[in-house]
Amino acid sequence: MSNVVLTSKSRMNAGKDPFVSHICQASQPVIYSVHGPSPSTTKFDPATLKESHSSTIDYVISATAG
Q: How many CB atoms lie within 10 A of CB 9?
């Protein structure tokens, strides 16, 4: 087994809108929410969303493509 190269630490306030994630080494928290048709496929009531932000899957897709 090779040596550990990177350990990433983060914390997230899941269950609230918007989600706020504090990621290791980031100077600002990352804001997540839902947008477009996403609220209909999640537990969020679209009428209660405060504002629209990128969702977690948007970040996963961007990281995979990048």
A: 8
